[in-house]
Amino acid sequence: MEWTNDESSRTKASIASLRYTSDAFAALFCAPLKRTPEINRGYYARISAVNHVIREFCRREGPTTQVVNVGAGFDSLFWRLSAEKTCFARVVDVDSEHVTRHKIRAIDKWPQLKAEVENPLTEDCALHSDRYHAISCDATKARKLTQRLVNECHVCDTNPILFVFECVLLYWTRDQTSGLISALSQAFPSSAFLVFDVFNTDDTFAHVMQDSLQSRDTPLLGVSSSVTLDQWKDKFAENGVQNVIAWDMNTVYDQLLSREDRQRVERLEFLDETELLTQLLSHYCLVFARSRASLNNRPNAAFASATSARAASRVPFPARAPQQCGPRFPPSSSSTTPAGPKWSSHHPFRAHPHNLVGKKSCKDGVCSLVFADGVCVFNNLGILCAKRKDIRERLRVREALRVDPFRTGFGHKSQAFKIIDLAVIRLCFQVYLESAPDVFDVALEPLVSEPIFDKKAMSELAIAKLSHYSAPVGGGQDIVLLCDRVVKDDIRIRFWEERDDCLYWEAFADFKASDIHKHFAISFRSPKYCDLSVQNAIPVNVELVRPSDGGTSESLPFYLLPDQKRQRPPPPQSRPLRTNQMEEYVTARADVDFDFDVTSLPIDDYFWCDSRDTNHALLDITSREWNEEKTFACLQ
To answer: What are the boundaries of the region Disordered (predicted)?
Structure first.
């Protein structure tokens, strides 16, 4: 199975270099491997979905969260979470001896990796530190794995723990998988499981994939028990893990991933036959399961948040809620605004004056529904924008209704004109449980969607024209860029270069918000290139970037020129000069350049230059024409 890790890790490094994902550490473990566009998008869907659930799990469970990555390979999960400032207690990578040794050598080699591993201790094909552990262990031997996690990696059985399996369980028999799930769920009552693996294995496409793996001595031992999503759920249910949700990757790609991010990715590489991607994703699934005591007794909460976040781009969408705490659940939906200038999930959110409108269940800008089957769908929702003169009144109504999910108050209504951005909102979702018949008073933690931008205010980024399409490698060239409307505090100009399909260099232009003229023109200085000693023009790309949502414009070609000083051209060959008075020859040769002063020569008004033949026509230079023609005459 080790060759599958090498191929997968190299593909992850490749898509990171192509800017599908943000992973500055993947290429430190292995060299990128160029793949086809449909495979790149498939890996993007896989990585984005898995990363989202892990981050959401850590956010909900807090700083005591533990993540065990079984069959981790060269995955850079620990470094990505650290770079994103995610709160967690420890990450444990488990794999074979060969893979673990390679990973430990890479950590010791690269300062970027070693800097995050605090107080490392390497012993017998294992690395232990304060928050990161890497061990080699046969995961099919559940008892031995459990003992090493507790004794060597100090995994606490009372704190929340998430076991991650990416393309691992399908290589095991059903008995091996059942034994591991049963042992882990019993040893760690607060455990949850995240699985990305193959399903729908009974069609021609799947048979070809199985034959290919079989020819490389890598059989899929669990294929017969992984044909449907229900069979994946049964693997957990039969071993005491009852709270399970499973999605095929087409649904994940279409409904869980951000629409804006999908659009960004789809612009990176042209994919003509999108049915190839659909066929590929239809054979993979994402499964999230939890033990009885995990996730603060909120089943599938981490996975549910991904679903509710899709409100930003698609309505209707399924909003998942707990399914065992009560017979009915009334979710309410309202609009919120971040308390700060950036649209971050870490900001305290406040009520927004925009109202939700719809055919049913919408009143005073708030939408409420009652449902009993665990799935709620908001149909035909719209957003009614508030005018500036109506902001305070709408917030006063919201305050009277006591719609304040994050309990941040309504003190901002007095300064609404200054701090509320009418061009962007988030939808907020909150579920209330029924403690008694028709009494919904148990509130769950609210969730918010991705930012929703007003298309009139947030147009698609586009570069109309540049005043210069080249600049010195030393930077500092003044350039004017004409573009569609941009927000002054939310725009950057990115220069970048690719070599061998990998990102080689990038830098951002130097300008301030005051350098943007009426949102449609930007005056900036070109950045400095990484190598100032180049001798030839370097082709690079330039594009607009919107930091708030990651949106980019189409890139334009740009050239960085060698930074050389202008030199004077070499002087022409000198020629002997003579006058028309044959008895007076000027035989001396003089070096003639552009600064030559003809008036210093003792010659007549009739004057010519000669090298070999003296029978040239005379050049008549009168005193009237002297100042205009003297230099020309000397250079003939």
So the answer is: 323-346, 560-579
- Give me the residue spans of the domains in the chain: 2-199+225-313, 323-453, 463-561, 577-634
Under 8 Å CB-to-CB from 393, ≥6 apart: which residues?
none
Count of positions (residues) in the chain: 636
Q: Are 428 and 451 in contact (CB under 8 A)?
A: no
Question: Could you report the per-residue pLDDT of 249-276, keeping only the tens digit for each?
Answer: 999 998 888 888 888 998 898 887 788 8
Nearest residue to 398 via CA among 455, 343, 390, 37: 390
Average pLDDT over residues 196-211: 81
> How many other CB atoms sit within 10 Å of the CB of residue 422?
18
Q: How far apart are CA 82 and CA 116, in angstroms?
A: 8
Q: Cβ distance 594 to 609 under 8 Å?
A: no
Radius of gyration of the chain (CA): 34
Query: 325 with 349: CB under 8 angstroms?
Result: no
Answer positive or negative: Cα dihedral of 267, 271, 277, 278: positive
User: Quick one: which of 251, 374, 397 has its CA closest to 324?
Assistant: 374
Reduced 3-state DSSP string for 176-216: HHHHHHHHHHHHCCCEEEEEEEECCCCCHHHHHHHHHHHHC
Task: Determine the Cα–Cα distance for residues 17 and 22; give it in Å rounded to an integer.
Answer: 9
pTM for the whole structure: 0.52
**CATH classification of 2-199+225-313 is 3.40.50.2000, yes or no?**
no
The more confident residue out of 504 and 579 is 504
Distance of CA 357 to the CA centre of its chain: 33
* Of the options 1.10.1040.10, 3.40.920.10, 3.30.565.10, 2.60.40.340, the CATH number for the domain spanning 323-453: 2.60.40.340
Q: What is the CATH number of domain 463-561?
A: 2.60.40.10
Tokens of 524: 């900036």
- Segment 6-30, tens digit of pLDDT: 888 999 999 998 999 999 999 999 9
Q: DSSP characters for 332-393?
A: EEEEEEESSSS--TTSPEEE-S-EEE-SSSEETTEEE--BSSSEEE--S-EEEPPPGGGHHH
Residues 328, 372 contacting (CB under 8 angstroms): yes
Which string of DSSP letters, residue by residue, matches 402-436? Answer: T--TT---SGGGGGHHHH--TTEEEEEEEEEEEEE
User: 326: helix, coil or strand?
Assistant: coil
- Per-residue pLDDT, averaged over 413-429, amounts to 77
How many whole angstroms separate alpha carbon 528 and alpha carbon 453? Answer: 34
With contact defined as beta carbons under 8 Å apart, do 550 and 522 qualify? no
